[in-house]
Amino acid sequence: MSEFNASRSMVVITARELLRKLGRHFEITISAYLESKYGTDIEMVGDDPRRFYSALEELFGEFAAKIFMYDLTRELNIPVKSTDIEDLLKGLEMYLGE
């Protein structure tokens, strides 16, 4: 049995909520893309934030992917040095305990 990770769950739930705020079609589009290309769904953000960011970047472009990751770290109140994508990803990884 796998161990429950509250931080991972919060990241995934928050990501889903952000996508729903943008519109259900975004959640559906991203889920379908992740499933077809990577064999997973939005849970990827809690398992591998960098890979999730890359998938968003492939699908919507660098700017949209960065804004989504910024909003995600902000919603989770994760302290970051700057809004640079590397700092956002490092903050998210630290939150996840990686």
Explain the layout of strands and helices.
Layout: H1 6-22, H2 24-38, H3 44-47, H4 49-60, H5 62-75, H6 85-96
Task: Give a brief outline of the structure.
This protein is 76% helix and 0% strand. The protein is mostly helical and 98 residues long.
Task: Describe the protein's architecture and organization.
Helix content is 76%, strand content 0%. It has 98 residues and is mostly helical. It has one domain: Non-ribosomal Peptide Synthetase Peptidyl Carrier Protein, Chain A.
Low-confidence stretches: none
CATH topology: Non-ribosomal Peptide Synthetase Peptidyl Carrier Protein, Chain A
Could you give me the name of the CATH homologous superfamily? Protein of unknown function DUF3227
CATH architecture: Orthogonal Bundle
How many individual domains? 1
Q: Which structural class should the secondary elements be placed in?
A: mainly alpha
From the spread of the alpha carbons, the general shape counts as: globular
Rg on CA atoms, Å: 13 Å
N-to-C CA distance: 20 Å
- Counting DSSP E segments of at least 2 residues, the number of strands comes to 0
Mean model confidence by pLDDT? 93
Strand fraction band?
A: under 5%
**Individual helix count:** 6
Largest sheet: none
Highest-level CATH class: Mainly Alpha
Task: Summarize the amount of helix as a percent range.
Answer: over 70%
SSE pattern: HHHHHH
Key words describing this protein structure:
single chain; 98 residues; mainly alpha; Non-ribosomal Peptide Synthetase Peptidyl Carrier Protein, Chain A; 6 helices; 76% helix
